[in-house]
Amino acid sequence: MHEMSIAAGILSAAELASEGRRIKSVSIVLGELAGIDDESLRLCWELISEDTCCSGASLDIRYIYADLKCLECGKVFPLRSNRSLLCPECGGEGRLTDRTDMQYIEAVELYDDHQA
């Protein structure tokens, strides 16, 4: 389960960004084809963040869906819409764009000094 190592990486980066303050939430972005099971990632997050500055912090996930770019006409179209590699405009072959397997931290929300 590689979700545990991903959760550990998120925790490490969030702790570094927080400079010791308590964290309320961590927002991440996952590409549709990143190969990460969000349910497993959330479970790993709960386990690994226990007794840290992220304890109780929510893990908010935003998805970026896979796009294809037609090699003939250049049109970008979503893989999700028709699950075909053929361009809906000209019928040419589509190739995956580079957004499909990305994963990154988008934001870390901290408690202010009067909360927690």
Verbal overview:
By secondary structure, the protein is of the alpha+beta class. The protein has one domain: hypothetical protein PF0899 fold. 28% of the residues lie in helices and 29% in strands. Helix 1 (3-18) crosses helix 2. The mean pLDDT is 91.
Short description:
With 116 residues, the protein is an alpha+beta fold. It is built from three helices and six strands, in the order αβαβββαββ.
Taken as a percent bin, the fraction of beta residues is 25-35%
Would you list the SSEs in sequence order as H and E? Answer: HEHEEEHEE
Gross morphology: elongated
In the CATH scheme, the class would be Alpha Beta
Helix content: 25-40%
Report mean pLDDT, rounded to a whole number.
91
Q: How large is the count of helical segments?
A: 3
Regions with little confidence, pLDDT below 50 for 5+ residues:
none
How many domains, in number, for the residues? 1
Biggest beta sheet attributes: 3 strands, mixed
Q: Ends: how far apart?
A: 32 Å
CATH architecture heading: 2-Layer Sandwich
Structural class: alpha+beta
Strand order in the sheet with the most strands: 2-1-6
Here the CATH topology equals hypothetical protein PF0899 fold
How many runs of DSSP E, i.e. beta strands? 6
User: Which radius of gyration do the C-alpha atoms yield?
Assistant: 18 Å
